[in-house]
Amino acid sequence: MFVSKGYLKMLSPAQPLAQQQQTVSGSDYKMSFRAAPGDAPAFRFTSHGENQPFAIKPAAATAPPTPVNVQQRLRSGGEASPELRMRELFDKWGLAPDHMYFRRFSLDPFVGPGHSTAFLEQFFCEPIVRSEIKVLNKYDTLVSGGSALDPSQLEFLPLTVTQTDMSMFDGLFDCGAVRKNGAIVKCFDDAYSPPDGIGSTPDPAKLHNEPGDAIIADEMHRVLLDATAPAFGDAFASDSARADLLYHIFAHLALGGRVNQWEDNLGAYLEVTKAVYREMVSVTRTADSGDLILHGSAFMVVPKAQSSSGGQQLFPMRHRQNFFIVCINPLKRHITCWYHASTAYY
Questions:
Q1: Bridge partner residues of 186 (DSSP)
Q2: C-beta of residue 73 within 8 angstroms of C-beta of residue 79
Q3: Cα angle value 201/330/108 (rounded, 5°)
Q4: Contact 250/169 with Cβ under 8 angstroms?
Q5: pLDDT of residue 91
Q6: Cα dihedral angle (253, 257, 259, 260), rounded to 10 degrees?
Q7: What is the pLDDT of residues 235-292, one digit of tens each?
Q8: Nearest-5° angle of CA 297, CA 301, CA 305?
Q9: What is the pLDDT of residue 169?
Q10: DSSP label at 160?
Q11: What predicted TM-score, i.e. pTM, was given to this entire model?
């Protein structure tokens, strides 16, 4: 895939709100209601059931089974659906459904800027949410979240949502980590360990400092992980860039899961980053000036403390690739959850 600076355009302007509202009905959907604390409204939550981001729709009952993977379909001259394309890349990067998933819910009424914390506290108390949000236990199995989703045991760390295009990744070309044709510059394998002395709470701008040894095999992964690298500050110029939702999506995809087959070209990473971002946020254009407006508030959900008591935990261990991102889209009135965890990384 050919890639150059500015290669991907970001979100196209959204349809008017009246056209974007989705009617939630049918047997796949469930709704619950809970009173809110303080002056926050009482939110109602509706599960999207099987209609989840990147979910592969089951074949019609009359269609014969076709257990053909994406590569076989492409070699035979057919076309893979976008969902199959995404699933193939997730699996290739070690982000398979037994360790990673997306879940979406609808909400009502509108979430105002000052009610995010009250909203999230309500959200994680909901029986519907607790029944659908799974966590990975120490036996490497996704199980019901239970007490791990108790909001009194969670912290909600805000991520900035500022990007309307992919220009923040131009620095990867400028610093020499990626060539003009999109090829990622290789290097000799280099063992990397994060610095000692991390804080008790993760810093959204310092994902690279979170625990987790790694093998750096190319310059792109070096500027994602190694703060001592000369090009580290050139690839992403500020901490604020590394605290942005778009950066976190890209970094988590590029760093991958426990067994990750890395790409040789930047294109696939940008393609999936764009797709995930568009599932989480919306953009509209003002009628008078034509300026773009982003709609979305994103949070890293982290445990306040990793208990040794044996109770249910949000993650089996602290690691930069054990993550839980929740994005509230007030335009579509969606909450999109993205969870990944593993008990080991190789």
A1: 218
A2: yes
A3: 105
A4: yes
A5: 96
A6: 10
A7: 998 889 999 999 999 999 999 999 999 999 999 999 999 999 999 999 888 888 888 8
A8: 150
A9: 97
A10: B
A11: 0.85
188-210 pLDDT, tens digit per residue, is: 999 999 988 777 889 999 999 99
- What's 281-306 look like in SS3? CEEEECCCCCCEEEECEEEEEEECCC
Classify the C-alpha dihedral 267-273-275-278 as positive or negative: negative
Helical (H) or strand (E) element with 71? helix 70-75
- Here the tokens at position 110 are 């509108």
pLDDT tens per residue across span 219-245: 999 999 999 999 999 999 888 999 999
What's the rounded Cα separation, in Å, for the pair 266 and 256? 14
Note the pLDDT of residue 44.
83
Token pair belonging to 268:
């696939």
Looking at this protein, which amino acid is placed at residue 172?
L
Q: In Å, how far are 50, 58, 59, 159 from 68, measured between CA atoms? A: 22, 13, 12, 39
Q: Which two tokens stand for residue 292?
A: 């773009």
DSSP state of 229: S
C-alpha span between 212 and 69 (Å, rounded): 32
Residue 4: its pLDDT value, please? 47
Residues, the chain: 346
Tens-place pLDDT, residues 121-152 = 999 999 999 999 999 999 999 999 988 999 99
Given 3-state DSSP classes, what are the helix, strand and coil percentages for the chain, each rounded to the nearest 5? 30, 20, 50
End-to-end CA distance of the chain: 28
Residue 72: how many other CB atoms lie within 10 Å: 12
Distance (Å, rounded) from C-alpha 59 to C-alpha 217?
Answer: 40
